[in-house]
Amino acid sequence: MSEAPSRSRLSTTTLLIAAGAVLGIAALVFGTAVVIGLTVPGVRAHFDSLIVAVLLVQSAGTLWALTFILRHRGHRLSDIGFARPSLRLFHLLWQIPTAVIVVILTQALVFAITGSDPVSESSTDSLAGNAGAAGAIVMFAAVAVITPSWEELFFRGLIFGYVRGRLGTTCAVVISAVIFALCHGVPILLPYMLALGLCLALLRVFHGNLWGSLGLHITINSTASLVLLQAVFA
Q1: How far apart are CA 143 and CA 141, in angstroms?
Q2: Nearest 5°: phi and psi at 84?
Q3: What is the pLDDT of residues 164-202, one digit of tens each?
């Protein structure tokens, strides 16, 4: 599927401003949470609620900031990749299961080679159990919906679009996937995140917009985050 060219090519300044906003908001929100946790009496007793609030503010704030920056810099969201979806999205019925199998097999291979074991009980399990029903729902929305939205806008929209405009589609797929994996930072999960990043970027190319990659990203995050609701409502 051919993609209509953007009204204006993404500039280095736009990319740097967006990256600065992503890093700045994360540092500000999480830094503020640490200060509050260390200085405000009684906050430690409600640490789980604080973490939920931090995740929501960080994800929603980043999505808003990226949208504002793009519009202020003269770009429509449709220019970046949120163009009108088409019936081609029905291909996600086989693409999403295929991608899920690929990323799971990739991580399983890493575990087999390194001898590592998957973590059976993560910190999110206890966090969900302690946050209560409302907190678990808010956290699920932040992790499963809002975070994939801003990450697709940034990684498959801005970074992918910037690199493709200068080095071509193949480099855009690889570079955006590598940056995506590195930004998620857990060494043992780097192969998983790299495989996921490649799948997301390939969907970006196949569909000619961000809806395909967003669909896969929401599916992955939702599946991983269902434990948050299960821990509360089971």
Answers
A1: 6
A2: -60, 125
A3: 999 999 999 999 999 999 998 788 889 999 999 999 999
